[in-house]
Structures are given as structure tokens and as C-alpha cells.
């Protein structure tokens, strides 16, 4: 029988340098999956094992399962995507392109319904009301907004009968169930498949042949194969690599990220630097170029591809020195803010604020006003002009 190897990457740090070493552990490709996880669908090759700072993890990779394996696994399933917004549209289109039976459940004749029809979903065949889609589906992907999940739960919950799997792409409604009122039935599998990107990026990455990172978790495993379902479902909806987590950790990390460096913090830092430059006589275009344009067009792509050290090395010697000297200052100034943010997420304050705002009848109008105020900030008005003058836009 053929012998293969698990690859484990260990990042070793000491006072002078850091380097990576690979350790190989032999295992049997045909049996290791079933022995370790109890999966019924064997991968094409063993899972990758990584360890950073001594913390072992397993990464599931799309290349481990050919498309034919995914199609075979889901051949007796119907994936019911509930909601056709940010994630619903992207995930369902990716799954459909992967040759898996899918249906959509949305409010009849609403905006999501109209978008689904324009994307080729057929009313009465692949496009249904939420109630009928949950009835027909065997795997129910609840991709409604957090507020809409609360509103629709009385419709969905009674239809979650034995043998079905309920999947979320954000653990919010489950983790903060004391506020959302979502009590899960005991006789079904409940899993999490959370792409680490907005739906638009998930779709684009899938169409480009890549796939984004996703997180999976199991809340309830009645069948004994909930993790297998989560992994294969993750690849079906467009994931490239999949990492394990828990509902709580995914929810806390996601909310901290969105409030922090993925949203609130980055806007706050951009705005603060821009305003200081303007107050000291720099033009709007210069302030924008030195604050946002160089970051998004030159430096952040380098960090994304190669890491912070590579980006620093690619800069001038003066820029390197300034970046390295000021990084600890910014870290110290912001550390307490992030601790406060994490506690606000953990104790449910952020969840309560989100639910209250998004449950208001006029929340859409209020949100539009907030976006208009953001768009009308001088920094972003300067950005529109600068972007329009990029060579590819002239």
C-alpha cells in the first residue's frame, strides 16, 4: 500500500531570527482520513498540518477533493440557499456552477427574487418562498442578514426536521441566541461555513479559479458526519482553503475585524492622517495619495502576497526606518482600544446595537444617509478624482 506524508510547518522564533522548518509524518492516504475524522469521502491526498507558535492545525484544501467527489457527495442532496443578498447570491451561483442541485428561498417578488430571476433561477423549479425552499431542501443554508434571520426564524424552525442540516455563514444568531431568540432543534446537524470575504469577492475569486479562505465549525453533530458536510460544502460554495474554528471564535473574530482593521479602524486611521496633512497645508490630492492611494494600490497588495517584512524591504531606507520605529507607538496606542472592542463584542453589546439598528423599519434609509455622509467626506471626494485619473481609467 502506498505511503505518503503529512506536512507540518513549524515557525521557530528566537531572539535573533525566525525560520520555518518542515517535518514529515508518514501516513496512509487511503485510511488516514477515515481514521482521523470518520469521513466517508476520501481526499485525493492527505490533509496539510500546520503549526505556528506550536499550535497545531489542519488545513483542508480544495485540491484534496476533485469536483466529481463533491458532485457525488451531494448527489442525493438539495442545497437550499435562504436569502439572495451578499452571501446568498455568490454561494448559490458557485454551487450551481459546480454542478450541485440548488434552490433559492427568498421573499416572493422582492428585490432578491427579481435578482435571482435575472440570474437564471426559475420560479417554481429552483426559486421558491423561504417556507417552500426549507421544506424542499436537505441542506439549509441560512444566509439571511442577522436581523432577517430573527424575523424569519418562526417560519424556518418548524420545518427543520430530522435528517436535514442547517448551515450558517456567520455564528452571530446562534452565539447571541439570548438576544436573537434562535433556539436550534435538537435532531439536526448544525454547522458553520464562513467565507473570509464579502460575497462579491467570493464569487470573483471562484470565477478566477482561486477560492477564498473559509472557516468551518460544528455546533451540533447528530449524524456523526457534520464536519465532513461542512468541509465539502465549503468547497462547493467556492472556498479554496478551509480552517477549523468554533461558532464563538468565528463570531467574535469577525465582529472585531469588521469593527477594527477591516472597517472602523482603517477608516479612522485614514481620516486622522488625512486631516493632519490637510491642516498642515497639503492639497486634497496629495493627502489622499499619501494616505489611501499608495496604501491600496502599492503597499497592501505586497503585504497580501508576501508579508509585512517584504513590504518594508521594498520601501526606501528612510521609509523602512520610520515604519519600524512608529509601529510600536501605534500598537501601544491602539491595544487598549482593541481590548475594549473585544470585550464589547464578547459581552453582547455590539450584537445588541446591531440588532436594534437593523430591526428598525427605517434602517435602510438611515444607513443610506450614513454612507452618503461618508462618501461626502473630503478625503473620499478627493479619492474619486484621483481614481478617475488612474491610467486605466483615462
UniProtKB/TrEMBL annotation:
| UniProt entry keywords in alphabetical sequence | Amino-acid biosynthesis, Branched-chain amino acid biosynthesis, Magnesium, Metal-binding, Oxidoreductase
Record-annotated residues binding Mg(2+)?
A: 290, 294
Pathway(s) per entry: Amino-acid biosynthesis; L-valine biosynthesis; L-valine from pyruvate: step 2/4; Amino-acid biosynthesis; L-isoleucine biosynthesis; L-isoleucine from 2-oxobutanoate: step 2/4
Q: Name one Pfam family in it.
A: KARI_N
Q: Which cofactor does it need?
A: Mg(2+)
**Domain DOD-type homing endonuclease, first and last residues per copy:** 232-308
> Where does the KARI C-terminal knotted domain lie?
246-393
Q: Where is the KARI N-terminal Rossmann domain?
A: 55-245
Can you tell me which residues bind substrate?
316
What does the sequence similarity comment in the record state about its family? Belongs to the ketol-acid reductoisomerase family.
Extract the PANTHER family matched here: KETOL-ACID REDUCTOISOMERASE, MITOCHONDRIAL
For this protein, the record's NCBIfam families field holds: ilvC
What is the designated name of this protein? Acetohydroxy-acid reductoisomerase
Amino acid at each position: 500500500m502506498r505511503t505518503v506524508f503529512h506536512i507540518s510547518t513549524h515557525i521557530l522564533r528566537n531572539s535573533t531570527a525566525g525560520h520555518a522548518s518542515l517535518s514529515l509524518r508518514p501516513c496512509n492516504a487511503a485510511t488516514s482520513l477515515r481514521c482521523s475524522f470518520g469521513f466517508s469521502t476520501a481526499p485525493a491526498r492527505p490533509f496539510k498540518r500546520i503549526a505556528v507558535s506550536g499550535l497545531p492545525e489542519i488545513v483542508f484544501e480544495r485540491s484534496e477533493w476533485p469536483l466529481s467527489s463533491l458532485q457525488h457527495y451531494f448527489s442525493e442532496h438539495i442545497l437550499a440557499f435562504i436569502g439572495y443578498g451578499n452571501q446568498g447570491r455568490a454561494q448559490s451561483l458557485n454551487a450551481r456552477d459546480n454542478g450541485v442541485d440548488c434552490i433559492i428561498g427568498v421573499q416572493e417578488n422582492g428585490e432578491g427574487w427579481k435578482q435571482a430571476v435575472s440570474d437564471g433561477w426559475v420560479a417554481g423549479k429552483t426559486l421558491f418562498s423561504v417556507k417552500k425552499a426549507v421544506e424542499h431542501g436537505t441542506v439549509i443554508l441560512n444566509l439571511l442578514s442577522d436581523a432577517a434571520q430573527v424575523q424569519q426564524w418562526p417560519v424556518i424552525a418548524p420545518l427543520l426536521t430530522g435528517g436535514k442540516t442547517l448551515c450558517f455563514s456567520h455564528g452571530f444568531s446562534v452565539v447571541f441566541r439570548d438576544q436573537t431568540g434562535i433556539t436550534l432543534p435538537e435532531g439536526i446537524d448544525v454547522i458553520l461555513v464562513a467565507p473570509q470575504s464579502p460575497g462579491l469577492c467570493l464569487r470573483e475569486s471562484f470565477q478566477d479559479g482561486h477560492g477564498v479562505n473559509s472557516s468551518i465549525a460544528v455546533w451540533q453533530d447528530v449524524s456523526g458526519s457534520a464536519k465532513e458536510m461542512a468541509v465539502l460544502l465549503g468547497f462547493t460554495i467556492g472556498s479554496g482553503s478551509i480552517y477549523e474554528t468554533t461558532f464563538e471564535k468565528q463570531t467574535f473574530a469577525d465582529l472585531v475585524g469588521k469593527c477594527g482593521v477591516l472597517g472602523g479602524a482603517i477608516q479612522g486611521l485614514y481620516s486622522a492622517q488625512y486631516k493632519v496633512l490637510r491642516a498642515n497645508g497639503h492639497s486634497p490630492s496629495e493627502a489622499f495619495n499619501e494616505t489611501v492611494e499608495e496604501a491600496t494600490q502599492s503597499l497592501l497588495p505586497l503585504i497580501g502576497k508576501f508579508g509585512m517584512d517584504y513590504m518594508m524591504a521594498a520601501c526606501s531606507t528612510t521609509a523602512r526606518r520610520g515604519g519600524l520605529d512608529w509601529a510600536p507607538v501605534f500598537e501601544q496606542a491602539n491595544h487598549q482600544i482593541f481590548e475594549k472592542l473585544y470585550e464589547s463584542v464578547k459581552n453582547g453589546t455590539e450584537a445588541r446595537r446591531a440588532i436594534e439598528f437593523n430591526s428598525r423599519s427605517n434602517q435602510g434609509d438611515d444607513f443610506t444617509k450614513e454612507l452618503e455622509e461618508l462618501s461626502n467626506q473630503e478625503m473620499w471626494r478627493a479619492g474619486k478624482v484621483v481614481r478617475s485619473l488612474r491610467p486605466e481609467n483615462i
